[in-house]
Design goal:
The chain is α/β, with parallel strands linked by helices. The protein is 38% helix and 14% strand. Bound molecules: pyridoxal-5'-phosphate (PLP).
Length: 366
């Protein structure tokens, strides 16, 4: 079976981890600093702050922007649940705005109608590695006095009109094992704002600047040097890994010709890094996934339920108010696109897709 993702770890990562182990200094130290410098350079900003995961990155970024109870944050219903959960963790309320179906990101024409006196921030997600419409989002934020916190967990190395993700305001990355680059687990926050960066460094370390003196309520969200060593080597391979993802996506685009399979769209001016290559199946998506599995092609659904439809959000009183996201979540299917694929495997994936026998969706069969 061709897996949907596979981390590519080599002798460089092994040597880097071994060097940290042998140094006896495992906790946050020089390796974390080097990884932070690398991220700041990649994103073209002054500060990068490493933390334990993409989720803690989002949580601390919101806290650093002083978002909490009674505040609202506008975000997308079509993402991994951690995006909205990070807002709930602060006591604030996520407000969901629907998506555009061509590239699955926030529909910027619907954002302003969702702004209330309580709105404090917009949290766009660069889903699957395709940056959201950042120019429009920054204009809306400025006009309404809102913070912007990018969820760039899936978009390290992507660019919007020449600007790297992580360059617009405060942004959060994930270094989880299936992401474009990994440290095992890990997260990174980038910002050009000195005060936000300082707050983030306090929040990740018990609110402490001087050891055993605590200025504010903080947490322990420090990354270890063991993780940072892996992440630092992976960051050096980021451009090459992304280039292979893009080449695999281009080959899939060329080879897939099935009329009921809509291939991923890329908007003008976008450098898409294909964290996922997600097609839309016009018909019985789950049957298509089964046929692909039988042909040796692993697939995945990111994500089968939109966030407001998740049981925890239903319990909180959220309703289905984002019809495009709800429909798209029944159509999408991610095909393998990771840099470990061989050209033969890419051809095998496309052949299996072109051979799909797709039944019309139930709603249209009536
Ligand atoms: C992976 C991911 C996260 C969470 O990152 P972790 O490192 O797994 O905590 C948040 N948002 C999105 C869009 C993600 O893909």
């Amino acid at each position: 079976m061709i897996p949907i993702s596979r981390p590519l770890l080599g002798p460089e990562e092994e040597a880097a981890v071994l060097a940290v182990l042998r140094s006896g200094k495992l906790a946050q130290g020089e390796e974390v600093e080097r990884l932070e410098q690398g991220f700041a350079e990649l994103c073209g900003v002054r500060h990068a702050v490493a933390v334990t995961s993409g989720t803690t990155a989002l949580f601390l970024a919101l806290l650093a922007h002083e978002i909490g109870p009674d505040d609202e944050v506008i975000t997308t219903p079509f993402s991994f649940v951690a995006t909205a959960n990070s807002i709930l963790m602060t006591g604030a309320r996520p407000v969901f705005v629907d998506i555009d179906e061509d590239c699955f990101n926030l529909n910027v024409r619907q954002i302003e109608a969702a702004i209330t006196p309580r709105t404090r921030a917009i949290m766009p997600v660069h889903l699957y590695g395709h940056p959201a419409e950042m120019d429009a989002i920054m204009v809306i934020a400025r006009r309404n006095g809102l913070a912007v916190i990018e969820d760039a967990a899936q978009a390290v190395g992507a660019r919007y009109r020449g600007r790297p993700t992580g360059n617009f305001s405060t942004a959060c990355f994930s270094l989880y094992a299936t992401k474009n680059i990994t440290s095992g687990e890990g997260g990174m926050i980038t910002t050009d704002d000195d005060a936000i960066a300082e707050k983030l460094r306090l929040l990740r370390n018990h609110g402490s600047r001087v050891r055993y003196y605590h200025e504010c309520l903080g947490y322990n969200c420090r990354m270890t040097d063991l993780h940072a060593a892996i992440g630092r080597v992976q960051l050096g391979k980021c451009e090459a890994f992304n280039a292979r993802r893009i080449a695999n996506a281009q080959l899939l685009n060329q080879l897939i010709t099935h009329p009921q399979v809509i291939k991923p769209q890329v908007r003008p001016g976008i450098h898409h890094v294909f964290h996922q290559y997600t097609v839309r199946i016009l018909g019985d998506r789950d049957a298509a996934a089964q046929q692909l599995a039988a042909a040796g092609v692993g697939t995945a659904i990111f994500y089968p339920l939109t966030i407001p439809n998740q049981p925890i959000y239903r319990e909180l009183g959220y309703q289905a108010t984002t019809p495009v996201a709800d429909r798209v979540s029944t159509e999408i299917l991610a095909l393998p696109v990771h840099p470990g694929l061989t050209p033969d495997e890419v051809h095998q994936i496309a052949r299996a897709v072109n051979a799909l026998q797709i039944e019309a969706p139930l709603a249209q069969a009536v």
